[in-house]
Design goal:
- The complex is a heterodimer of chains A (110) and B (111).
- By secondary structure, chain A is mainly β.
- Chain A has no helices and 11 strands.
- In chain A, the strands form 2 sheets. In chain A, strands 2, 4, 5, 9, 10 and 11 form a 6-stranded mixed sheet that branches. A 5-stranded antiparallel sheet of chain A has the order 1-3-8-7-6, with no helix packed on it.
- Chain A is globular.
- The termini of chain A are far apart.
- Chain B is mainly beta and 111 residues long.
- In chain B, 0% of the residues lie in helices and 52% in strands.
- Chain B has no helices and 11 strands.
- In chain B, strand 5 and strand 6 form a beta hairpin.
- Classes of the chains: A mainly beta (110), B mainly beta (111).
- At the A-B interface, strand 5, strand 9 and strand 10 of A face strand 4, strand 5 and strand 10 of B.
Chain lengths: 110, 111
């Protein structure tokens, strides 16, 4: 079966660093994605990992370990506008079928 | 401007009344997909299409139909909507770099 787990909610302080974890068990694997979704809006793409290791993009970094079925999204220098849900998704290898986790709601406090 | 558009954005309907939600993209993407989003369940893929006239079931296809007669359009059809199809629906298209662009969403209520 397909299963992706993320913490439901997290809280952090403005200016801090937060790590959002994602574990997955899927029938296939062709890449892992992170999306940001503000309340009432569409998800927007943040990162894509295919190989093990860390991908850095400005204040956001994403890490992947394929052998452990594990990824994390690291957000640095948190800003109030980072308050949103963060969605982890896996592309399995059966023709681009995407499986999303339930999302992690991050609240950034002043 | 590169975008994915959906119509309508909001719809309230009654059980059994056929409806279509349109989706259009102007980026010449081959891959398009439909998702529904429900609290606590996240985004679940309904159908996807890798190119014109090629469609495949996602994880929750029951009660839905799609068609892909041309590259830019990928309508979602509910032949006989039921209350359990009340949800927030997103259409998306995929770049060659595997980045999904999502439409603004359609909030559907079936009474």
């Amino acid at each position: 079966g397909q299963n992706i787990d993320q913490p439901t909610e997290m809280t952090a302080t403005e200016g801090a660093i937060v790590q959002i974890n994602c574990t997955y068990q899927t029938s296939g694997f062709n890449g892992l994605f992170w999306y940001q979704q503000h309340a009432g809006e569409a998800p927007t793409f943040l990162s894509y990992n295919v190989l093990d290791g860390l991908e850095e993009k400005g204040r956001f970094s994403s890490f992947l370990s394929r052998s452990k079925g594990y990824s994390y999204l690291l957000l640095k220098e948190l800003q109030m506008k980072d308050s949103a849900s963060y969605l982890c998704a896996v592309e399995d290898n059966y023709g681009q079928n995407f499986v999303f986790g339930p999302g992690t709601r991050l609240s950034v406090l002043p | 401007e590169a975008q994915v558009t959906q119509n309508p954005r909001y719809l309230i309907t009654v059980t059994g009344k056929k409806l279509t939600v349109t989706c259009s993209q102007n980026m010449n993407h081959e891959y398009m997909s439909w998702y529904r989003q429900d609290p606590g369940l996240g985004l679940r893929q309904i159908y996807y299409s890798m190119n014109v006239e090629v469609t495949d079931k996602g994880d929750v296809p029951e009660g839905y139909k799609v068609s892909r007669k041309e590259k830019r359009n990928f309508p979602l059809i509910l032949e006989s909507p039921s209350p359990n199809q009340t949800s927030l629906y997103f259409c998306a298209s995929l770049t060659q770099d595997n980045e999904q662009f999502f439409g603004p969403g359609t909030r559907l209520t079936v009474l």
